[in-house]
Write a structure and sequence with these properties.
Length: 294
Amino acid sequence: MVALAEEIQQILNSSVISAGASEGLAVSGLNKAGAVLAEPEKWALFIDIDGTLLSVAPTPDAVMVPPGLVQLLDGLASGLGGALAILTGRRVADADRLFAPLKLVGSGVHGTELRSERGGPITTLAPAIPSDVIGAMNNIAGIASGILVEQKGCGVAVHYRNAPLMRRALETELAAIIASSAYDLVLRKGRKVLEAVPSGYSKGTALATLLSRSPFKGRSPVMVGDDVGDESAFIAAERLGGMGLRVAGEHFDKQEADFDGVAGVHAWLKALAGRLALQGAAPGQSTGQSTHAG
């Protein structure tokens, strides 16, 4: 017990950046991330993948899942009574591949795919991108070497991490494609990626949908993310009585972030798992683990 308390305090003083107590949180003397550690049973956890759970890689397929992360996510989902969801720009099936054998609750392609129960089916909420748009976006790869076009069913992503000087040209081309299409698309900008996705969907809409359902309902949402696409979920979480935790990187600098990077997120998640384990071991105290679905 004492060792865990010391570990949490060390995390708060190092990997988790002190940003002051969050307005509206009745936890004196702790920053926002510390508030979740203080009373984890009150929260529903929503978390991004790239740049948050996993370090950014040159291409989407090149990311590495560190040892122990899958087991950590499994334990957190159980300890939170199932109230953990992945919100990602990737497809849900891609998240399943990364975190196999887990099939966590989650949303993919910026809110256009949804799995509302652990191990359950993936529901596609929006029509697929029309073939003419896909063809036009595939042609964009010919603008310069290093550009990668990724098909996502309900969305198309153009990655330019290996061709960073082409950002403005790509934005112009994609805006023209979207404007000429009869399909209602929006251009979402991210960390060295531009995505065409259906209008009306976002990580924020996914968070709100899941929070209205068991086992998330009745908890305060906390969203952890690092990029532009996560901002809609930060707004939704705050509007619904929770908060957003920002990860420093290419979008948020350390002065405005709650975590200094992926390693800080992992340290916080480990501390959260420890707190939940202590609560589960306390006599007569329920953490809702009996509601866990395989």
